Amino acid sequence: MPAQPPSKRRSIAPEARRIAILEAALATFSDKGFANARIEDIARRAGIGKGTVYLYFPDKESLFKYLISDALRPLLMAAHSALEESDMPPRETLAVFFHLLKTEILATEKRNLVQLMVMEMRNFPDIAEFYHENIITPGLALITRVLEKAERQGELRSAHVLKAPQVIFAPALLSVIWEANFTRYGDLDIDAAFDFYLDTLFKPADGDIR
Predict the structure, then answer these.
(1) pLDDT (average), residues 110-118
(2) Rounded distance, CA 143 to CA 102, Å?
(3) Which of 76, 91, 78 is nearest to 149 (CA)?
(4) Are 88 and 82 in contact (CB under 8 A)?
(5) pTM for the predicted model, two decimal places
(6) Distances, alpha carbon 157 to alpha carbons 62, 89, 139, 164, in Å
(7) pLDDT of 7 over the 70 cut
(8) Residue (of 39, 73, 70) closest to 55 by Cα position
(9) 112 in Cβ contact with 37 (< 8 Å)
(10) Alpha-carbon distance 92 to 89, whole Å?
C-alpha cells in the first residue's frame, strides 16, 4: 500500500502536536506543580522530543501563560457577552457567570490551573503580572459594571462591595482551596456556596422573603 503523502501528514501534525503539548503540560503542571515541572517531562508525556516543544513555546513560562489564556479567556468573553448582549438583571448576570465558572473551570481539569495560580504565583511574579493584566483586571471591570448597575437599581444589600469587587471570586477560590486541602474530609457544595453569595450580595425581590 502506498504511503500517505507527506504533505497531508504535515498539514495535520502541527496542530495535533500543539494540542498534545498543551494537554501534556496541563497534566504535568497539575502533577508536579509549576516550579518542579520540566520541559522534558512535558515532552515525554506528549510522546515527542524536547526540542519539538520549543518549536511551539520558547520556555515553560510562555507555555503556562498560554494555558491560562486558553482556559480562562473564553470564560471572560462569555461573561462579557452576558453583560453586553442582554438585559438580564444583575443578580442573574452574576448567576450566569458563576454557572460558567463552575461548568467550564471548576468541573474540569482547568481547575488545576487555578489551584496552581493560587498556590504558586507569588513565587513567579512575571506570570502573576500576566494573569492579573489579562484575566483579573478585565474580569473585575466587568464585575464592577454589574455591581454598579445593581447599585443604581437599588438591588445591592451594601455598596461596600463596590470598593472590593475582588470578593466576588471568593466562592470559586474557596472551592479550589477546599479541594486541594480538605476534600478528603468532606465535600463543599459549590452550588450552595454560589447561591448563598448571591443572597448575600443582593436584596430579595419583592415578595421574596430571605
Answers:
(1) 86
(2) 17
(3) 91
(4) yes
(5) 0.80
(6) 42, 15, 22, 14
(7) no
(8) 39
(9) no
(10) 5
113 and 67 Cβ atoms separated by less than 8 Å: yes
Domains and CATH numbers, the chain: 1-57 (1.10.10.60), 61-201 (1.10.357)
Written as nine digits, the cell of 113 is 490551573
- Asked whether the beta carbons of 179 and 115 are under 8 A apart, the reply is yes
In this structure, which amino acid lies at residue 74?
A: P
Among 49, 54, 179, 162, CA closest to 116: 179
Measured CA to CA in angstroms, residue 174 lies from 13, 191, 203 at distances of 40, 12, 23
- Can you tell me which residue has the cell 461548568? 103
Give residue-wise pLDDT tens across range 27-76.
999 899 898 999 999 999 999 999 999 999 999 999 999 998 888 888 88
Which residues share a beta bridge with 156? 202
Q: pLDDT tens-digit profile of 86-96?
A: 688 999 989 98
**Grid coordinates 438591588 are at which residue?**
155
Report residue 198 as a C-alpha cell.
Answer: 448571591
